[in-house]
Design a protein that fits this description.
Two copies of one chain form a homodimer. With 624 residues, chain A is α/β, with parallel strands linked by helices. Chain A folds into four domains: 74 residues, ATP-grasp fold, A domain (Dna Ligase, domain 1, 2-Layer Sandwich), CATH 3.30.1490.20; 106 residues, ATP-grasp fold, B domain (D-amino Acid Aminotransferase, Chain A, domain 1); 265 residues, Succinyl-CoA synthetase domains (Rossmann fold, 3-Layer(aba) Sandwich), CATH 3.40.50; 132 residues, Rossmann fold (3-Layer(aba) Sandwich), CATH 3.40.50.261. Chain A has 20 helices and 28 strands. Chain A has a seven-stranded mixed beta sheet, with helices on both faces. A seven-stranded mixed beta sheet of chain A has the order 19-18-21-20-22-23-24, with helices on both faces. In chain A, helix 12 packs parallel to helix 14. The radius of gyration of chain A is 31 Å and the shape is flat. Chains A and B meet through helix 3, helix 10, helix 13, helix 15 and helix 20 of A and helix 3, helix 10, helix 13, helix 15 and helix 20 of B.
Chain lengths: 624, 624
């Protein structure tokens, strides 16, 4: 599209474009008021500036005429001879702050709007944010606030005030624009308005949108289950799955070569099963389609495919999505560890998991296995676990959209194929959604691709869109193991240094102590305590001082109190750890036992009592 | 200084300034060639632009004259009436890339040069680096490379090439300039040169430089030691110090109220001691000066003051520096945990520390205590530990400058008063210097101040200067516990997800496998292994596959191999952990045992055998 056509087209959407006039190649150039800019318009010239096709700040008809000659000479020196259909655009000169707006089409997120600092800064600074085409006003503002240039809307700039609504309005117009690629640079912003001074677009057939977001609450309520492909060989996953469900009378086993397993009858054929809602399949890839079709008459709703060897091995798995759509069932996997739902452990991971509050939906089965094992050690319980595997059908969007519980949702993601649906689901969330995204660096993207066949995508685009939609991005994978949602916390510490380090990690979550609270604590503390949060109760603190301080701080209304214990000369670590076992507090307490040998017995006390504790500051804040 | 005077002064140092002419307030304004800029010059006007005192792009004498009237009207509207001594500067218009150069005076680092993106970007982007006034060419280039604008010197910009030597040259001139505050903005950069278009300076008496950097190698070689203020009461630090040195025949105890302690004679008075090189004092603050003076005749070289209650409690401690200077001794502390030197444990921290390779110099005694305890648990040995305390005399600069060993130096720093000396010491280092700096956020700065009385300073300035001088900035405090200096590593993993996450953490340290190496590994691995580093040996790997892969990878010349083990269905964790105990490898191996319950026995095997291992990915890379 030529510049004059583009201006017209943008103006049709209410987008502010310059006052401009089009002149034929050899026509007279006149314009008012001066100064003006002159630009060549020719289908063959995409980057006008680079071939000397633009002249700025022209003050008179004479200068316009001289500029035309100069531009033609420039073009000539680049081997460009404009044709008869070509011409000139003369526009007013605009001043203001240079902004950048763009539209791009991402394979996972479809249409995405870009906003940031414009002019040459696009290339040097990449001070850009990403905005989903379906983002509402608040989400747009949130994205803008994450750019450096965005500060001018809150702080002003050099005594001038700029209205963020101008930017939001243009973003919303770009959201409606039917285009897959557009660059507006610069867009000139003044206190009174903005105008798209220069733009380039590729208009053509829009790519097709992805699958609609399906609602699958049944996945979270398995009752009558079956494991297809149980095994008596301990080294087979069909054995582990059977073992993890040996105590469940509503779980049926299927294997044509077995009669009983774990004192349970084994069905020879799927046809022999009673009605079931959830089936787990650990059978050869070639047997999957047939088995799924034979499960349909059993009223199955959820099919979990443990079997590997599909996309990650370069083999086609699209038939699974087709089966899911044709029969209206939910397919998890293939290539996964299984699912755990409120005590029903349909995974081949550890048995005897504790029921609890953590929701973990993970694209990596090994990460699930690791976190389950760690949770066992630390007495952490799960509400639901889904090892998503290759996501031939059910993906993160479906899971977040359909979860109806009360606790935070933690996601481990390497790459998604339908990010748009995940954003839609996150926008409707009623609980916090936390995301750990692997594949930030090129090396990690390569590693992720080699083990899942997933493209990891652009990390900044992914995390930017997720954050603006309302998800929290975790920087530490350990954060996936905790269900807590904390806004304001207290730190009680016997080591000023550790309190300082922790403050750096969660500076925006520190509750500010009131004067009365400082006075109250002062009554039980040595005079040189910190009089501040972190509450530094000094290195010689024993369990008595810890207890007195915690009893007072318990009334301060924090969401949690981190209790840092370092092994100093007077520190009675075991007695301190018993505080968390023997005393009841209103506030959630998190002991953070820093050290090694001197902390072993204390940690043991907490582990035995089922108290959640941390061994590292970074782990303690990993979910914040 | 007026603009015309400033131009002259800068030009005197060989700094490129614009061609300019000065005109009296009502004199005729003429200039060649056009276009030009016109600026008011008046002692009362510091920020010309903000009062409309500048006109740009003037094309003729007529425009110059109109601009003068416009500027006078602008000034009038701001209530400014120029006096008879005031005048005008007319300069050529300069085009190019806008840069910022500055000089500032920091309380800890004294004179510091700033460089970055200029014009309005100084305020919006703060794309700035800090350069020490003593930095050499390579250090200057290193700093520049950490700005975004610095990319134009490597990548060019819009087809043009820019020469970093122009920037280095101007920085070096600013290093020589006798000024404590200077802003040059913008400095216009073209392919052919640069020119300081606008500048402001504060010239006056320069602040005095800090203490010279003294060399204190004797600190690291204590032989004949004394503990002044030993105690028989187990809750006193004088007891712990005595206990930690009970087995050392060269360590004398002093306490007027004791005869013997731990079967050792206790001297009643300092006068009774034999000659000693190192004394540790845990006596009341008021007794310090007298004791130090009585130690001088004993030829003491190092005095370690455990005693607290000085600057951190608001009490003057400058007499300690005066004593150190007067008698030529090294004073450590006050308010510290002591020192540990190659087996001599002059701390009141844990006894029976392992001798090893880690050097830890820390401003926080509690952090020392925590890391010593953790090291005991993990079988990590120390070469030297210095708990620096308040640094009344010996500071980080002295320690880094005087260490003559072979291993990396790890520093925990909250705030320094003589950063210039530390930079000088780091520049002369023969071993890696790693720094964890607490006090990045305002909350943490407040916490640090309340427990040490130290101002934490500007984090970006501190870390920028340190990094350019050659130190490595640690983001995770756990990194202080390891002596390793790794350039290229391999990752062997049974979990693709964990390998991906780790790749994100150390993407620039991954060794690239050659085609032959891939072929060699392929002979012992399933066909769907990753064929890449991380070497994903697939979830069903047992110890046999781990061993085969490690025996091959051992020949690849990596500085270390991280061996990630996650508890998957087939994982024989104990047998895998025995590989690290039973087999000898050329390459340093780091087992990373991820999980909980299933890893406990394996961790135990490694701990008992004294093998360094990790439980978290973040910890495993904390020192890289």
């Amino acid at each position: 599209m030529q510049e004059n056509e583009l201006y017209q087209w943008l103006a049709g959407y209410g987008i502010p474009v310059p006052d401009y006039k089009f002149f034929p190649l050899h026509g007279e150039l006149i314009s008012e008021p001066y100064p003006v800019a002159l630009k060549i318009v020719s289908p063959g010239i995409v980057h006008k500036t680079e071939v000397g096709g633009v002249a700025l700040n022209l003050d008179s008809p004479q200068e316009l005429e001289k500029a035309r000659e100069r531009i033609l000479a420039n073009l000539h020196s680049h081997g460009i001879i404009p044709g008869e259909g070509d011409g000139w655009i003369v526009t007013r000169m605009y001043e203001g702050i240079e902004l950048f707006f763009g539209v791009t089409w991402d394979p996972a997120f479809e249409k995405v709007i870009l906003f940031g600092a414009g002019g040459t800064r696009v290339e040097i600074d990449r001070d850009i944010c990403y905005i989903d085409s379906e983002a509402g006003e608040e989400e747009i503002k949130h994205a803008i606030s994450r750019t450096r240039i965005g500060r001018i809307f809150t702080d002003g700039f050099r005594g001038k005030k700029y209205d963020i609504r101008l930017v939001v309005d243009l973003v919303q117009k770009l959201q409606r624009l039917e285009v897959s690629e557009l660059d507006c640079n610069p867009v000139m912003l003044t206190e009174n308005g903005l105008v798209v001074v220069d733009a380039r677009a590729r208009v053509g057939d829009l790519p097709l949108p992805g699958r609609p977001l399906k609602h699958i609450p049944a996945l979270f309520q398995p009752v009558h289950t079956a494991i297809i492909g149980v095994s008596g060989h301990t080294e087979k996953v069909g054995y582990a799955l059977a073992k993890n469900n040996a105590g469940d009378p509503d779980c049926c086993y299927v294997n044509p070569h077995l009669d009983t397993l774990f004192n349970k009858k084994v069905f020879a054929r799927i046809e022999d099963l009673p009605e079931i809602d959830t089936a787990v399949l650990c059978i050869p890839p070639g047997a999957l389609q047939d088995s799924i079709e034979r499960l349909i008459p059993k009223k199955v709703k959820n099919i979990v495919i443990i079997t590997a060897g599909f996309r990650e091995a370069g083999r086609d798995e699209r038939f699974l999505q087709e089966l899911a759509d044709r029969y209206g069932v939910n397919i998890i996997g293939p290539n996964c560890l299984g699912i755990y739902m409120k005590g029903k452990n349909l995974t081949f991971g550890p048995e005897s998991m504790k029921n609890g509050e953590v929701n973990l939906f993970s694209q990596s089965g090994a990460i699930v296995a690791e976190l389950m094992d760690k949770a066992l050690y630390r007495n952490i319980g799960f509400e639901n676990i889904v090892s998503t595997g290759n996501m031939a059908d059910v993906d993160f969007g479906n899971l977040v959209y359909s979860y109806q519980g009360m606790h935070a949702i933690n996601l481990y993601i390497e790459g998604v194929s339908n990010g748009k649906n995940l954003l839609r689901a996150i926008r409707q969330r009623k609980v916090p959604v936390r995301v750990f995204k692997a594949g930030r660096t090129e090396a990690a993207k390569k590693a992720a691709f080699s083990h899942t066949g997933n493209l990891a995508g652009n990390y900044e685009l992914f995390t930017g869109l997720m954050e603006s939609a309302g998800a929290q991005i975790l920087r530490d994978i350990n954060g996936l193991l905790y269900p807590y949602d904390l806004k304001k916390v207290l730190i009680v510490t016997n080591a000023g240094g550790a309190g300082t380090v922790m403050s750096d990690l969660i500076s925006d979550k520190l509750l500010t102590l009131s004067g009365e609270q400082v006075d109250e604590l002062g009554k039980v503390l040595p005079h040189h305590w910190s009089k501040n949060n972190p509450i530094d109760i000094i290195g010689d603190a024993t369990h008595e001082r810890y207890l007195k301080v915690l009893e007072i701080a318990d009334r301060f209304g924090a969401d949690a109190i981190y209790v840092l214990v370092t092994p100093q000369f007077m520190t009675d670590t075991e007695d301190i750890s018993r505080i968390f076992v023997d005393h009841a507090f209103h506030t959630q307490l998190f002991p953070v036992l820093l050290g090694g040998v001197k902390m072993e017995a204390a940690r043991c006390i907490l582990r035995k009592a089922g108290v959640t504790y941390f061994e590292e500051l970074t782990e303690a804040v990993s979910f914040l």
